[in-house]
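Lecture 7 notes: from sequence to structure.

We start with a single chain of 291 residues. Read the sequence below before looking at the structure.
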Amino acid sequence: MVSLAETAEGRQAPRRRRLLPRGLAPTLPALVLVLVFFVLPVLALLSRSITEPVFGLQNYIDLLGSSTYLKIFFNTFFVSALVTAISLIIGFPVAWALAIMPQRQANIVFAIILLSMWTNLLARTYAWMVLLQRTGVINKTLMGLGLIDQPLVMVNNLVGVTIGMTYIMLPFIIIPLYGVIRKIDPAILQAAALCGATRMQAFVHVLLPLAAPGMIAGALMVFVMSLGYFVTPSLLGGTANMMLAELIAQFVQSLVNWGMGGAAALVLLVVTLSLYAVQLRLFGVAGQEKH
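Now the structure, written as tokens:
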């Protein structure tokens, strides 16, 4: 005979199960972690951006209505787009070479690429400061070859920022491209050649469309990471070529203006999420069409 306690527990069990959708219980710790360390800080920033120093949208009006701040926004998006484009131009041939070279050699090159990612970011940035300065190795080499008469100015400007960030971002575009290109069946390119396609035609009409998912995923990753980069632009760019992450740090650390810092951070977050939503939308549609 079933006791009253067992009957009551049996009635409550379905109710407890209904509190969480099926399959969601194992992910509850991760969801709590995201809520505590990501969602709540963003909400706190949003709150401070509209309440400090006074309630309203004045921080956003000041941020988007100032020519100085708009120049910083322009620098941020321009450098991010330039770094993304250069990384694609350099990264695609490297990924293609990795995909077609013998496996042992590819493993060595791939290990070198990973080793560059594991090296301390600050150390790599300081190394570029030494290389790019007026008395650095690059300028001395160019002058020794007779290519230039005067040292090039490549530090404390957007040139140095672009070079340093491109070097750091290259692995993040080579790795996804390598994964996509390696899965392409070589027989497809051979079939295109047998059908009369030249190498350029096979590259443009066959290889590029097949590698497009990796290119777009890598480009989006590089662009989004570049938008919020701080160390390299701060050391190689200087205050005259400030980017958005440096502006946020200045608002919070130097000026102790959490309202403006929160507004700038949320503008950056909205742009990042919008880009991710566009990419997710496009790939979702593409995936449905393929299937």
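DSSP finds 13 helices and no strands in the chain. Keep this in mind for problem set 3.
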